[in-house]
Amino acid sequence: MNQAIRNSWIVAVALFALLFGAVSYVQFFAVDSLNTNPQNNRQLLANFCSNRGPILVDGKAIAESVASGTDCKFQRSYNEPELYAGLTGFFSKFSGQYGLEAAMRDELTGNTDAALFDRISQVFTGAQQQGRSVELTIDSTIQKMAYDMIPDNVGGSIVVMNPKTGAIIAMVSKPSYDTNLFATHDAAAFNASMKELVDRDEISLAGSSAYTGLYAPGSVFKIIDTAAALESGKYNKDSILPNPAELTFSGMSYALPNYANGQCYTKDKATFAFALENSCNTPFASIALDLGQDAMTAEAEKFGFNDTSLKFPDRVATSRFPGSEGTLDDAALAQSAIGQRDVLATPLQIAMMTAAIANGGQQMAPNLVQTIRTPDLKTVSSLTPEVLRQSTSPEVAAQITDWMVSVVDNGIASAAAVPGVKVAGKTGTAELGLDESGVMLNNAWFTGFAPADDPQVVVSIVMPKVDVATGAQLTSPNASNLIKAVLNK
Amino acid sequence: MSQLLTVAKPRRNTELLLIIVALGMSAMANALVNLNLGRNFDNDFYTQIAILGGLALVFHIVLRLKAKYADPVILPLVIALNGVGLAVIHRLDITSGDSAATRQWMWTSLAVVAAITVIWFLRDHRILRRYTYISLLISVVLLILPLVPGLSAGSVNGATVWISIGPFTFQPGEIAKITLAVFFAGYLSSNRDLILLAGKKIGPLQLPRTRDLAPMIVAWLASVGVLVFQRDLGSSILFFGLFMVMIYVATSRVSWILIGVGLIVVGGTAAYQIFPHVARRIDVWVNAFDPEYIGAAFGSFQVVEGLFGLANGGLFGTGLGQGTSDKLPVANSDMIIAVIGEELGLIGLFAILCLYALLVARGFRAALGTRDAFGKLLAVGLSFAVALQCFIIIGGVTRLIPLTGLTTPFLAAGGSSLLANWIIVALILKISDAARRPIDVSTADNSKPTNDQPLKEVPSP
């Protein structure tokens, strides 16, 4: 009998061993996966009421946690919320976090692996966990200036960046919204604001349209066509390109017309300089047909199209060049070459493409975060410029720069000129179709950089759904002013 | 067995010292609750320490008088568990506005008094053997009570296990645990030789005669009946486990275990097929993290939130009163382990598990030491029941097994459970007293030749 009792005891011990195992698993090994489980709102609630680090621009907090005097100890508060909504996003108890609040959550809450030591010492000192501060690369003056350039009734975006470091100097888009309405602790108020916001589908909660909005790039894409042509070896700076009034395709009634608003119609053969200055369509469509789909796709991807993993640090929407997904017929390839059809780009992508030309063919990784500091102002990390990819050779970049300078000096981007500074630029007018009153609506683009011989600043502007005249007015002249402002700093 | 007969010492002073440690632990838990939740050390705090201390002291003195050789570790273990439970229930009251702690204090007092009564009046545990069949009858009545119209408190959380008398509700199944153990112990100790030797042998299996087996089948049916009619999966498994371990200890036959496992497999499969609530438990367990199951009625919300709470506590815990699990349904009973785990951390839960493991170990020690088969069987049965109950509920909370409603012994809020477990402790203490007491040939029961004296260790056939 005693042997059986001992055996039963072994079973009881085994049961307890299983319990020790189960408890260890739940409270030690599975802690991370349980804490990050999407069904678990404990961390969010704890974070929500905790003292999160501020987001700073020029040393001034644009997002900060202020004592609330309630059980939920801290309230997230945004300064100049509309100006920065697209960058900061917001931090909500009810719907989670967006924008930098999401992308930098570990730093802002102090939950990074690097902060592990701080957290261990907090266990013993009982100190309240405090997040780190995140200082942005944004220049508040330029940001404000760019924001004011976009009329309230036009949903546009402007990106200003440093081509040599990838640092974003300004990034704005309209329409914007008041992030404070969503940081509220009051569920009813939150729901009301959210309902209002959801009705306005031109506003993206996922972040500024400057990096989440996708627009047909139109003629600014010709920069990539030109790079592809020069790299192929089939063309050089003196090449003469065909410039017919329209391009027809065998077996199709569709014909691709030349650009109507410049001097294209005056010549049936064109140099690169002429074709770029007047933004003629048929020469570039011909180049694409000559080089073929694969070469065009490869070139677009070298400039950052179809990159699904870009973060700056929030995730950037993927700009698309359709060639990688199947065979394009000639008409589709020709239209893609002039940035129409299924080609879509974020304003940030266009700025990066331009920055690659400005920076001798080297594309720098874009970044919004300048420095991360601990609460006692120790710098944890600061921006180190990183090469994202080699988009083209320095020679090709220099050649394209020359032509882009002449687009401003002699071509249709003359309004972007800045006295005493060599500005390189390219405009784009992607046709979207007629509105109800029969006016052609376009995405009006300008992208360029200055000074051409030592580029300090890239400016990319898109004003979607505007007529040609409004588009011209809102792009090149604004670019000129922004370049002036940055260079005078 | 000779190695167990060490020089007998009462060790009551050791017990007193350990009781002081246990009381200190309980008082500190209560103090932490008050500190962390911004309560003052009001009169209640001191009254409560005084009550628990008084109860422990009276129990201790009764042991000195009536069960001098009882195991000195058991009472302190139980006081520590009960004290921590009271502190945690008090903590949950503060954030929920309930008054469960007051009821728990009342029940604790009542349960301790009941346990003291058992120690005082039950001169020898073997007396219980006389009530073998009465115990069976009482068990059956207790198990049927919740189904009697007028007494039944209806279905609570899907199980019909409560009765209500006036303002009180009571779970008779908790007491049935004890009476069933007494019945099994009495029946098996009287009939083990018959069960072992009579009957046909088929292959390696020695089958008992049908009439020897009949009462066992009745008991087994009782546990199945609990599952079918009261929808109480936890108690059903508990009764079945109790039945299995006692029959194994009585017969030392592994073949019985195999038959039992076979029955579990057959019964489990049948239950899964036939009873939607059993199948539902399994589904909920497997798909616990599926949002659909979390949101559903009788879904996994409870267990998943408990797990999130435990993870939130991590290694060191959030500190008493600082956790997030207080909003859980039945936080102070079924889910109290989740609350303790979150607020005292993995370390705290390990400590609690160690207390239980030690308690069970002392129960088995008493079983090994006592000289009569009835005492051995009863001590093993009751101790194993405590172990199994811990396993079922703590395993359920940690999602080791599907969660079924059972109370965590001594910790959880609930009068019937406290009462039953304190009586179990009294019985184990009594048996341990018999085990450690120097052999006294003048003891009346010992002088009678009974077949509960182990004849000799029969070599296994």
UniProtKB/TrEMBL annotation, chain A:
An individual GO BP term: cell wall organization
Species for this entry: Arthrobacter psychrolactophilus
UniProt protein name: Peptidoglycan glycosyltransferase
Gene Ontology cellular component annotations, sorted alphabetically: plasma membrane
Domain Penicillin binding protein A dimerisation: 52-134
Chain ranges of the Penicillin-binding protein transpeptidase domain: 156-476
Pfam families, alphabetized: PBP_dimer_2, Transpeptidase
Record-linked PANTHER family: PENICILLIN-BINDING PROTEIN 4B, PEPTIDOGLYCAN D,D-TRANSPEPTIDASE
Signal peptide feature range: none
UniProt keyword annotations, A-Z: Transferase
GO molecular function, one term: penicillin binding
Record Gene3D superfamilies: DD-peptidase/beta-lactamase superfamily, Penicillin-binding protein 2a (Domain 2)
TrEMBL record, chain B:
Gene Ontology CC annotations of this record: cell division site; plasma membrane
Transmembrane segments: 16-33, 45-62, 74-92, 104-122, 134-155, 175-191, 235-251, 256-275, 335-361, 373-398, 410-429
InterPro entries for the chain: FtsW/RodA
GO biological process terms, semicolon-separated: cell division; regulation of cell shape
Taxonomic superkingdom: Bacteria
Keyword Transmembrane helix: yes
The protein's name: Cell division protein
